[in-house]
Amino acid sequence: MGRQRPIGYPGRQRQAHVYQVSYILPLVTKLQESGVPMDRLIKKSDLRYFDLTDTELYIPAPVLEKFLTMLQNDVVEGRIAETFHDLFIPEIPSDFGSHICNAPSLLSVSRRAIKSMTLYQSNMNLNLNVIGNKAVLLHHTTGWPSKGTTISDQIGLARSLNALRKTGGPDWVPLEVQIKGDIREVEDMLPSGQYPVYDHQPETKVFFRTSMLHNKMQLAFPMKEVHELPPPLVGYTSRIEKILESCVPGHVHSLTDLSDYFNMSKRTLRRHLTQEGTSFAEILDRFLFSRACRLLENSAMKIEEISEYLHYANPSNFLRAFKKWTGTTPGDFREGLHG
């Protein structure tokens, strides 16, 4: 008998979605400051293979959602989005956050966020609709339903509410709120006031007056100017490239790793990459060459150390690979750069 799909989700496929490190970093920092041994918890999870010091790097969505679920089940008293809703503000510590926050109005903020959302969270569908004097900000986390995607939806609601408070003022009250999950899971972060709230809806929606779209958000602190962002992360190739760039020194993600991270068979992953005109071997080869050249140019690391950094079995294998790429040795290549 073949594997059955969950009822109500016909034909839904797993996809290689990613989150930017900036999504989790404020929460990790806050918990560390509260005395939670985050280093130990991270070392117990697949997050240990990712560089969490650079907000512009990326983490596979299932890896982060599994970690959030563990935090909510075993560490945080209550639900993450409710307990730490003040952390989930528009001032995201990354170029994405700076770009959207420096927009001149809430309308521009929304448009920039919708256009570039895949650079921050590729499985978040965000939209803005205007119906006369009523506007609605709506979102939902795509993919297979799980505790992790539920937490993501709740964090998305917290961020939307905080953006609207920063636009409408601390006493702002929505016209209506529709919640994808159970109201009891988010009621403590909803604004005080009289307005209808509906739960168990297809997606989360926050209704507000259209006139607010012309207002500017009042930021908690100034953000650097970022006028342009990279292209959206659409497709498997670009997201896998970002995942490879995010690995910690001494570890390079393999096809098996990616298959595990994305809960997807290697065969399926290969098929998607073939459809995009590439293969994992080609992506990995480009990454190793680029990273090797960068380390040779910008670091004082020895050739043996670079070989270990890039997870080669021994320096001889690295030397052979580098000579195949460039026709010369790493040492001669470095001398040519600095000669």
Q: What's this model, at a glance?
A:
The protein has two domains: 18-214, H-NOX domain (Alpha-Beta Complex), CATH 3.90.1520; 236-338, Orthogonal Bundle (Arc Repressor Mutant, subunit A), CATH 1.10.10. The protein is 43% helix and 10% strand.
Q: Would you kindly provide a written description of the structure presented here, covering whatever features stand out?
A:
With 339 residues, this protein is of the alpha+beta class. It has two domains: 18-214, H-NOX domain (Alpha-Beta Complex), CATH 3.90.1520; 236-338, Arc Repressor Mutant, subunit A, CATH 1.10.10. The chain is 43% helix and 10% strand. It is built from 14 helices and seven strands. It has helices spanning 25-33, 38-43, 61-74, 80-83, 95-101, 106-116, 147-168, 236-245, 255-261, 266-275, 280-298, 303-309, 315-326, 330-338; strands at residues 18-20, 58-60, 124-131, 134-141, 176-178, 197-198, 204-209. A five-stranded mixed sheet has the order 3-4-7-5-6. Strands 1-2 form a two-stranded antiparallel sheet. A hairpin with a 2-residue loop joins strand 3 (124-131) and strand 4. Helix 5 (95-101) packs antiparallel against helix 6 and helix 8 (236-245) packs parallel to helix 11. It is elongated, with a radius of gyration of 22 Å. Mean pLDDT is 92; it is low at 1-12.
